[in-house]
C-alpha cells in the first residue's frame, strides 16, 4: 500500500506537458499547474496573443506582456517535490532494518537500490536490460522518475489497458467492471503507447515539413528584399552617375560660356585701354609744357630765351586749341561690351537627371512554345512575332493576340515595307515578299546560302531598302524591293552580325556581348563592349537606342535607354524576373504607343 501511495504521489508531481517532474511550477486561473518553461513555449506558439489557454481544460488565463514569470508559483507543490526528493534516501530493497543509503533507481523494478543491491540487481539475467538512473541525476532534476503505472482503485494491478473513449489507462479489473459496453473501446496500453508515439512522430514530421515550407517562404522574401535592395543600389548609382555627368557637362558648358564672354569683352577692353593710354599721353604733354611756361619767375630778356619762350607758348596754344575729348568712341566701344548678357535657361531640361520609373508588365505565353525567331513592329503599331513552325502572330499593345498570318510559312526573319508588304526570310536564307492580303509575289532575291553565308538576319530601312546580314560571311547585303542581285555589300570585318536593326542613316548590330553602331559603309561609329550579359538592341520612338541585357542563368532582364553615341541615359527596367527559356534568343522592340516588348522563345513581356 505504501508503494502504491508513493507511485501516486510521484505521478502527481509530473508536468502534463513535458511528463517530467515539475520545475518552477506555475498555476493558471483554472488551477492547473505546469512548468514555467512549458508555459513559455505555449505562449510563444500563440504569437502575440496575451491569452494562454490551458492544455487540459482549455480555460483562458491572461498573461500580461506574455510574461509567464508573473503567474503565481505553486509553492505547496514545490515543497512537496522537495520532500519527495528527500524521502528517497534509503534503499527500498534491503530487508534488514538498518537500510543503506540508495544510489540508483531502477525504472523497470520501481525500486531505489543501494550499492550492494544494485550489484546483485545488475547480475540477474532478467534485469540486465533494465533502465537504471543515478540518484544525483534524479535529485538535480535532469531526469524524471517514471514509476510503474498502478491502478488507483486496485493498487496491486498494473494499468495494462487504455480506454479510447474515456481517454484514460485502466487495469484489467477496471475494464471488466467499468469499460464493458459498446461506448468503450479498450485496447492494450502498449498498443496505445505505440500508436501515440507514431502520431507524435507524424506530427513532428508534418511540423518539420511545414517549418521547411515557411523557411522557403522566408528565403523567398529575403530574395525579393535583396532584389529591391539591388534596384535601390542600381538606381542610386545611376542617379549619382547622371549627377556626375551633369556636373561635368555643366562645368564644360560654364568654361565655354566664360571663354565666349572673354572673347566678346576683352576686345572692347583693349580698345578702351588704347583710348585711355592716348588721353594719358596728351595729359602728360599738356602738363609738361604748361609747367615749363608758367613756372618761369623771370621775364626772358635776351633773344634766345625770348625765342624759346615764344616757342613753348606757341606749343601750349596749339595744345589748348585741340578739341574737347570725343566721348562717342569709348561710349560706342563700351556699348559693344555692355550688350553681352547671360540668359539662364530657367525651366529647361539641361539639369534634368532623369526620373524613377516603375515597370508594369504583361506576361503572355506564345501560342507555339520555343518557336519564336523574330519580333518586329508592324506599320499600324502592333507587334509581329515570327515562328519557325509557321506563321506571324500579331499582338496588340495590351498583349492580345489579334491574328495569325502566313500560317503555313516557316519564318526565320520578317520585316515590313512602307506599303505594308511582308518581307520574309526563310530557313534557306531565301527572301519572299507577300502582300497585305498574304499573296506571294513573284520576286526573287539572289541571297547567299546558309552553307556559304551562315545564318542570316534582315531589317528594312525608311527607304525600303532590305538589309540581309550573314554571320559566317561577316557581311551585309543590300537589296531593293525589286529583287535580283544585291545593289551593294557592307563588310563587317572582325565581327558576326547576329542581329541588325535600321537606325536612321545607321545600322545597329549585335554580336555576342557587343552592340555596334555602324554607318551604311560599314564604319563602326560607336560600340558598347564587354557587356557581362547578352545584349539586344532596338530603336525607341523618341529616337534613342534601347538595350536589353539578359542574365540567362538566373532569368533576369534589365532594359536601359542610350544616346546615339551609346552613352547611358537612364535605366527603364532593372533585374525583372522572367521565365528561363530553353534557347538564348530574344528580341526587343517598342510599340508606337510607347510600350516596350521583350520576346523570348516562349513568352512575350510588355512593359509600360
Automatic annotation (TrEMBL):
Segments forming domain B box-type: 86-135, 151-189
RING-type domain span: 15-58
Top-level taxon of the source organism: Eukaryota
GO terms under cellular component: nucleoplasm
Key word DNA repair present: no
SUPFAM superfamilies linked to this entry: 3-carboxy-cis,cis-mucoante lactonizing enzyme (SSF75011), B-box zinc-binding domain (SSF57845), RING/U-box (SSF57850)
Gene Ontology MF, one: ubiquitin protein ligase activity
This protein's name: Uncharacterized protein
Amino acid at each position: 500500500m505504501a508503494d502504491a501511495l508513493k507511485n501516486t504521489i510521484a505521478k502527481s508531481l509530473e508536468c502534463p506537458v513535458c511528463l517530467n517532474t515539475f520545475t518552477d511550477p506555475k498555476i493558471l486561473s483554472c488551477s492547473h499547474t505546469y512548468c514555467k518553461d512549458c508555459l513559455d513555449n505555449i505562449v510563444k506558439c500563440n504569437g502575440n496573443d496575451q491569452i494562454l489557454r490551458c492544455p487540459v481544460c482549455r480555460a483562458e488565463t491572461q498573461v500580461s506582456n506574455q510574461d509567464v514569470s508573473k503567474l503565481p508559483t505553486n509553492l505547496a507543490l514545490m515543497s512537496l517535490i522537495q520532500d519527495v526528493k528527500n524521502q528517497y534516501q534509503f534503499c527500498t530493497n534491503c530487508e534488514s532494518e538498518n537500510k543503506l543509503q540508495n544510489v540508483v533507481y531502477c525504472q523497470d523494478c520501481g525500486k531505489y537500490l543501494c550499492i550492494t543491491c544494485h550489484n546483485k540487481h545488475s547480475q540477474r539475467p532478467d534485469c540486465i536490460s533494465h533502465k537504471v538512473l543515478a540518484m544525483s541525476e534524479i535529485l538535480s532534476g535532469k531526469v524524471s522518475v517514471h514509476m510503474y503505472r498502478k491502478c488507483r482503485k486496485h493498487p496491486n494491478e498494473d494499468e495494462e489497458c487504455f480506454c479510447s473513449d474515456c481517454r484514460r489507462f485502466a487495469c484489467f479489473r477496471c475494464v471488466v467492471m467499468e469499460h464493458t459496453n459498446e461506448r468503450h473501446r479498450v485496447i492494450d496500453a502498449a498498443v496505445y503507447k505505440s500508436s501515440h508515439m507514431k502520431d507524435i512522430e507524424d506530427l513532428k514530421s508534418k511540423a518539420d515539413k511545414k517549418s521547411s515550407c515557411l523557411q522557403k517562404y522566408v528565403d523567398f522574401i529575403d530574395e525579393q528584399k535583396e532584389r529591391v535592395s539591388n534596384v535601390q543600389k542600381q538606381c542610386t548609382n545611376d542617379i549619382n552617375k547622371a549627377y556626375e555627368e551633369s556636373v561635368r557637362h555643366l562645368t564644360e558648358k560654364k568654361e565655354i560660356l566664360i571663354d565666349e564672354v572673354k572673347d566678346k569683352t576683352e576686345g572692347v577692353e583693349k580698345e578702351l585701354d588704347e583710348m585711355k593710354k592716348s588721353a594719358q599721353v596728351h595729359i602728360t604733354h599738356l602738363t609738361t609744357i604748361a609747367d615749363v611756361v608758367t613756372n618761369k619767375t623771370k621775364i626772358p630778356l635776351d633773344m634766345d630765351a625770348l625765342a624759346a619762350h615764344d616757342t613753348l607758348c606757341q606749343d601750349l596754344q596749339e595744345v589748348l586749341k585741340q578739341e574737347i575729348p570725343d566721348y562717342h568712341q569709348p561710349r560706342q566701344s563700351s556699348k559693344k561690351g555692355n550688350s553681352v548678357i547671360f540668359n539662364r535657361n530657367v525651366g529647361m531640361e539641361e539639369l534634368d537627371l532623369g526620373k524613377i520609373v516603375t515597370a508594369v508588365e504583361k506576361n503572355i505565353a506564345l501560342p507555339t512554345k520555343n518557336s519564336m525567331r523574330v519580333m518586329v513592329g508592324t506599320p499600324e503599331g502592333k507587334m509581329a512575332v515570327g515562328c519557325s513552325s509557321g506563321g506571324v502572330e500579331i499582338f496588340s499593345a495590351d498583349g492580345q493576340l489579334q491574328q495569325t498570318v502566313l500560317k503555313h510559312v516557316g519564318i526565320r526573319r520578317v520585316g515590313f515595307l512602307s506599303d505594308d508588304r511582308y518581307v520574309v526570310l526563310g530557313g534557306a536564307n531565301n527572301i519572299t515578299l507577300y502582300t497585305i492580303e498574304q499573296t506571294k509575289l513573284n520576286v526573287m532575291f539572289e541571297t547567299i546560302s546558309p552553307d556559304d553565308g551562315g545564318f542570316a538576319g534582315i531589317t528594312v530601312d525608311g527607304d525600303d531598302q532590305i538589309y540581309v546580314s550573314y554571320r559566317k560571311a561577316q557581311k551585309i547585303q543590300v537589296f531593293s524591293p525589286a529583287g535580283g542581285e544585291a545593289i551593294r555589300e557592307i563588310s563587317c570585318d572582325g565581327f558576326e552580325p547576329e542581329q541588325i536593326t535600321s537606325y536612321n542613316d545607321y545600322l545597329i548590330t549585335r554580336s555576342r556581348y557587343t552592340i555596334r553602331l555602324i554607318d551604311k559603309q560599314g564604319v563602326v561609329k560607336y560600340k558598347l563592349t564587354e557587356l557581362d550579359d547578352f545584349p539586344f538592341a532596338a530603336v525607341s520612338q523618341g529616337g534613342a537606342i534601347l538595350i536589353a541585357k539578359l542574365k540567362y542563368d538566373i532569368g533576369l532582364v534589365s532594359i536601359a535607354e542610350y544616346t546615339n553615341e551609346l552613352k547611358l541615359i537612364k535605366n527603364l527596367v532593372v533585374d525583372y524576373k522572367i521565365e528561363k527559356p530553353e534557347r538564348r534568343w530574344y528580341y526587343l522592340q517598342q510599340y508606337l504607343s510607347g510600350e516596350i516588348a521583350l520576346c523570348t522563345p516562349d513568352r512575350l513581356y510588355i512593359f509600360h
